[in-house]
Amino acid sequence: MSIENNFIGFSNNLEYLPKDFDEFNSIYRLRQLFLGLSNNILKSYCNFSKYEQRKLSIFPLNKAFSYKIKSMLPISFIKSKKATSMKFNPCSNSTNIINSYLNNGISGVISATNLIPVAKLISVCFVQNCFQLLIDKDLLFHEFVLDKIKKLHGNRKVIDLGDSIGIKVQNSIGIKVYTSWKHIETTKPNIKSELDNAIKSIKKGEFYQIYLAYPKNKQFTKHIPVYVDELKNREYQIKAIPYSFRSIIKN
């Protein structure tokens, strides 16, 4: 499994970004894409605002995350007027992680549920004293689609099934969505793996409406109905659908 083909992120000064596609045709926009998508993975302790995504994308990803960590550190500044007092009582593990980071190194990763947000981010970004964050691109896309579906179907129950996403219709999960980060060509779509999973689900009688979601590109802009000979005597609907990332680069 190669890093270049399966992961997005950075390792020290090296950046691993997807190839240009759709409106993401520059290193600036590809960095902006990663910062936006990483929010869905790191949201419990780190969030890049739209402003930060735009401004930090002019820098390499390791610099962007270094800035984010420093902006989250509990550092006191002298203010011109009296401010409301704030209590800061981090756990000992959080203190050790922060002190190690400030001393230019993390000797070991501490995993604990009570770490404060900046300590969690530091812990995630250091692997064997290497400053890096590499996230599986299929996971990034899955979480992006999951978030979009939850917002679109606010009145329905949306379930993360791990390998797919279920949308509950009445008393059953009537719609299933498989996600995969692939470059789809409409003349010869590479969807066999996801299609095989869809066929199995339909044969089990669990679902009849299944969508195969992939990132939108300039050749793949519309839904593609998929017809399967072995399902011709069944009631079913399978479509390959494009999902756009453009909302990330919009103000």
What's this model, at a glance?
By secondary structure, this protein is of the alpha+beta class. The chain is 35% helix and 20% strand. It has helices at 3-6, 27-42, 50-56, 61-72, 92-102, 117-125, 137-152, 192-203, and strands at residues 7-11, 14-16, 126-127, 130-136, 158-160, 165-169, 172-179, 209-215, 224-226, 237-243.
Q: Order of strands across the widest beta sheet?
A: 5-6-7-8-10-9
Strand segment tally: 10
In N-to-C order, the SSE pattern is HEEHHHHHEEHEEEHEEE
pLDDT averaged residue by residue: 88
Percent of residues in helices: 25-40%
Structural class: alpha+beta
Enumerate how many helices there are, as a single number.
8
- Report the portion of residues in β strands: 15-25%
Largest sheet: 6 strands, mixed
**Cα-based radius of gyration, to the nearest Å:** 22 Å
Poorly predicted segments:
76-81
Total individual domains: 2
- The general outline is elongated
Taking the alpha carbons of the first and last residues, their distance comes to 36 Å
Task: List the topology elements.
Layout: H1 3-6, E1 7-11, E2 14-16, H2 27-42, H3 50-56, H4 61-72, H5 92-102, H6 117-125, E3 126-127, E4 130-136, H7 137-152, E5 158-160, E6 165-169, E7 172-179, H8 192-203, E8 209-215, E9 224-226, E10 237-243
Question: Explain this structure to me?
Answer:
- The chain has 251 residues and is α+β, with helices and mostly antiparallel strands.
- It has two domains: 3-136, no CATH class; 153-248, no CATH class.
- The protein contains eight helices and ten strands.
- The protein has helices spanning 3-6, 27-42, 50-56, 61-72, 92-102, 117-125, 137-152, 192-203; strands at residues 7-11, 14-16, 126-127, 130-136, 158-160, 165-169, 172-179, 209-215, 224-226, 237-243.
- The strands form two sheets. The protein has a six-stranded mixed sheet. A four-stranded antiparallel sheet has the order 2-1-4-3.
- Helix 2 packs across helix 7 and helix 5 (92-102) crosses helix 6.
- It is elongated and about 65 Å long.
- The model is unreliable at 76-81 (pLDDT under 50).
